[in-house]
Design a protein that fits this description.
This protein is mainly beta. 0% of the residues lie in helices and 45% in strands. Strands 1, 3, 4, 6, 11, 12, 13 and 17 form an eight-stranded antiparallel sheet that branches. It is globular.
């Protein structure tokens, strides 16, 4: 690795006339010098799980920290009860889609096995872990090895992109999406797989996403004792302050 670039006077994201104009670090509450725009971010590399109320586990099972196939770095291992659907949901629903505002999601995840009717999903949802109301997530349905990109709006489910990648046992996938305010770009292992154009926020037909408040979620329905390993999660979206 080459030598780093050194900014000895700091780096700012705002103009000189703003209150933090001479603050030597990026403004944590505004971006691009715009007083009313911010990017709020949740990220976790799972060196710890946090407080006991940070995540809600539904359907039985447990989460634990450990170093899995990812090697060096934190990992959260989600082990459900045998043959029972179990979801892990972040307690705070602090994100939402707004037309014209950017949204980012990234998760590195691996199931221990994919055989039989094992199913799983991961992404964003409302407080309802079963995602019967609203959500935007990646789904491996039972008896298939493909990962679909699915939107749920007011209980209506739409597959926005089918078979964006193949899921393999014990193999990590770095999967994410980026909403640029108009379109959604779905990526796998840093490669854009599909662009979904002209996204509508809050509608129930076509290429639409929910306007509900969301939080990260991941769920597995095992055949027996399969588990999910997550290396990291990042969620961010632009908001008006």
């Amino acid at each position: 690795m080459s030598a780093p670039t050194r900014f000895l006077n700091g780096v700012t994201t705002v103009t000189a006339g703003m209150p933090l104009g001479n603050y030597p670090f990026p403004d944590p509450f505004h971006t691009g010098g715009t007083a009313d725009v911010d990017v709020v971010t949740y990220s976790n590399d799972f060196f710890d799980i946090g407080t006991t109320t940070a995540y809600t586990i539904s359907g039985g099972g447990a989460v634990a920290l450990g170093v899995g196939a990812a090697g060096v770095g934190g990992t959260i291992v989600h082990t459900p009860a045998s043959a029972t659907a179990s979801a892990v949901t972040r307690a705070a629903t602090a994100f939402s889609f707004t037309k014209g505002k950017k949204f980012w999601f990234l998760q590195r995840i691996a199931p221990s096995a994919v055989a039989g009717v094992m199913s799983m999903f991961f992404g964003m949802n409302t407080a309802n872990a079963a995602i019967t109301a609203d959500g935007l997530y990646f789904r491996k349905a039972a008896s298939q090895s493909n990962l679909d990109f699915v939107s749920v709006v007011n209980g209506t489910t739409t597959v926005l992109a089918a078979a964006v990648t193949t899921v393999a046992a014990g193999t990590y996938l770095d999967v994410g999406f980026y909403y640029d305010g108009t379109d959604i770009l779905v990526s796998v292992n840093d490669a854009v797989k599909v662009r979904i154009s002209a996204i509508t926020v809050g509608a129930t037909n076509g290429a639409t996403v929910t306007s509900a408040y969301l939080s990260p979620v991941f769920q597995i329905t095992p055949v027996a004792t399969e588990n999910l390993n997550t290396d990291y999660i990042l969620v961010a979206n632009e908001v008006q302050r």
